[in-house]
Design brief:
Elements (H helix, E strand, L loop, with lengths): L1 H10 L2 H37 L6 H50 L11 H22 L9 H4 L1 H17 L5 H11 L1 H15 L8 H20 L1
Length: 231
């Protein structure tokens, strides 16, 4: 809870608020233009058909209302999906900067590593994405189990969250060997910490604002562990 509190204080600072708005703005722009160019022709076609006088007026009115609701819900879901994809991808670029921000503000005695090259980071992320899709496909048959099925889906997405966040944050704090040793040493404690962050991201709408807080929290966790190991 102490680490969460520190991360929340950092998240409310001006640089972090501005950074949190970047994926929202970028995702909104992408969602608007992609949705407009993909859906607008279909929207015009359906309106022309409904206004053609083929159906009785009352059926026409009901279908127009249903189409409007479907369009509105689809636009919101499209926006949320675009923002989440942008957040996942931008994490490769701004996570090292966030870690450096936390290090300078709270752990000035520690030194950060150079981190991987941009191409290396994108390559690791692509490899992770393929592994995630493989796990997702393997989990698909289990999702039809009554009651338990919907919970099965939480596992592959937690795997993606855990690995991608560790990939983004730990690369400038620990070497790969140190990270593996740390995960073996901490075991469930680290998974429990990241599970708490993951569950925050499951909450609708809140998941649009928590990625910066999640990176800040993990940065505090790993930097505090590194400081403890060196003391």
């Amino acid at each position: 809870m102490e680490l969460y509190s520190k991360a929340l204080q950092d998240a409310l600072s001006r640089p972090m608020i501005l950074l949190a708005l970047l994926p929202l703005f970028t995702g909104a722009v992408i969602a608007y233009f992609s949705f407009y160019f993909l859906i607008e022709p279909l929207h015009a076609l359906i309106l022309d058909w409904l206004q053609g006088g083929v159906l009785p007026y009352w059926i026409d009115s009901i279908l127009k209302a249903l189409w409007g609701i479907l369009l509105g819900v689809g636009a919101i879901l499209w926006f949320v999906m675009a923002v989440m994809i942008v957040q996942l991808f931008l994490g490769i670029f701004y996570a090292p900067w966030i870690v450096a921000y936390v290090q300078k503000r709270h752990y000035p005695s520690l030194r950060l590593l150079e981190g991987e090259s941009l191409l290396g980071g994108i390559g690791d992320f692509t490899s992770l994405l393929f592994r995630f899709l493989g796990i997702l496909l393997l989990s698909l048959p289990l999702s039809f189990i009554p009651f338990v099925g919907p919970l099965i889906w939480l596992w592959p997405f937690f795997y993606l969250f855990y690995q991608s966040l560790m990939l983004d944050v730990s690369g400038v704090i620990f070497s790969k060997e140190e990270r593996i040793a740390l995960e073996i040493r901490l075991g469930w404690r680290m998974k429990r910490f990241l599970l708490g962050l993951y569950l925050l991201g499951v909450i609708p709408l809140l998941n649009l604002f928590v990625p910066i807080f999640q990176i800040l929290s993990l940065a505090h966790f790993l930097l505090s562990e590194k400081e403890r190991s060196l003391s």
